[in-house]
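Chapter summary example.
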Amino acid sequence: MANSRRSRTNGTHVTLASICASILLIGTTASAETVVTINGVDIDSSLIDMYLESQIQKPAAQASPEERSAVMQQISDIYLLTTQPIADEIANEPLIKAQLVLNYRGILAQAVASDYITKNAATDEEILALYATQIEMAPPLQFKARHILVETQAAAASLISQLEEGADFEELAKSDSTGPSGPSGGDLGWFSPEQMVKPFSDAVAGMSDGEFTKEAVQTQFGWHVILREESRATTPPTLESARDIIKQQVEQKKLQSYLEKLRADLSSDD
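The structure predicted for these 270 residues follows.
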């Protein structure tokens, strides 16, 4: 019986969490009014509008009659199910009770974190400082390369021998590479070193344009024969184009520092 009850509740798990989020984030507002009452429980307009916006990803006022009707049906079904007499019994089952508590705590934690970030928003000075640091640390070059990926070192050595004898790199990649770029002649396009695993990027950085590796390079994907075709100076993004991302990074660092302080305070109380 317990298993069947869990099956029935799992289908509405995400939706119930969204409703809880509505209640936590909206609270009681002067403009809210009861829209419908289901089994003695009032459902107000603020909750409906918040849930509606979470479903259609636009302001509630822009919802079509069909969208609003569909959401109203979803909410109605949730309240119909959760106001059944059996719901109280199910809510006290250990697993379901734990899920409800974690949903509540998870939503509240997100709201507290959001409140902290709002009150400690990144300043222009902080954004500029992190931007300058990232520009300073950015690799000076980008590379355009091809590679042939094979399973064994012996197979890679054979390919290198063929290249030294004048074989065409692209054709070898098409015929021998096991990687997804094989059909396109091993073409990897332009990339920055940090976009590749370290042994691969180190090998490319140590080569000259037009040169292929004289020894196979091993990564977790297999053995690579690499041709570095071109290189160019890295063009850093402008501050304005990167501002939103850097702002988020600054604020996430602040939140992480806040969490670390809370953890330290908790440890010192033990």
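To summarize the output: The two ends are 42 Å apart (CA to CA).
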